[in-house]
């Protein structure tokens, strides 16, 4: 019968098609494995190329001009890249400066409200019949001698910048000054006598303009009093130690003069701060 023949032929077709499907699946698996091998080879080659490039590339050498306190140029000196050669984070700098500005302001303004002003208990005149405007108190903010509407009051506000952000902001500030060529290293400034004339002649020889900051080491002679006495009578000139720096002081001053001892002390100070922050986190 025709129905039986068709059934037999369909079974034969199904049996014949089974090995072809298996072969296709096996070929697909092989193709996938080949593609994966090619991808792995490409990734390995990329990694090796990056490693070769990283070995070939060395960190750029940062240098600053070296002077003595008399204004004579002594050459150049290398600066540590991890402190003076990092990418400047402008958003972090703006955040740090905002916090410094807020913490510096005292918010000491204070005025009296209606409840604090003396007097004004009796109604000045009756409500109706005088022809004048209604008034309930002589100490209304509309009257002379009256209270202050929405009076300001003394308040204490203290914003805190995390240690790691404070450290990164200072590194960004120092890096920006080095990029602008505003950092100069001085050799024998910590042993100078307390004479303003020496600092004045130094500025004249270098033709410096704008505000200046002298950075000395924390172990300077006489705790740096000689440098502070020599610079205190010159306008827009300040002195600070390397362990007391902040981003605001660096950005505020146009010229950064750093002693050689302070330059050697700054990287160790940053390492000490990082170790302290790690210990606190534990």
Overall description:
By secondary structure, the chain is of the alpha/beta class. It folds into 2 domains: 62-106 and 158-281, Ribosomal protein L4/L1 (Ribosomal Protein L4, Chain: A, 3-Layer(aba) Sandwich), CATH 3.40.1370; 109-153, no CATH class. The chain has helices at 2-56, 81-84, 90-104, 163-179, 196-206, 225-231, 247-252, 260-281, and strands at residues 62-67, 73-79, 183-186, 212-216, 237-241, 255-259. The chain has a 6-stranded mixed sheet with strand order 2-1-3-6-4-5. A hairpin with a 5-residue loop joins strand 1 and strand 2 (73-79). Helix 3 packs across helix 4 (163-179). It is flat and about 95 Å long. It starts with a helix and ends with a helix. The relative contact order is 0.12. Residues 1-5 and 50-57 have low confidence and may be disordered.
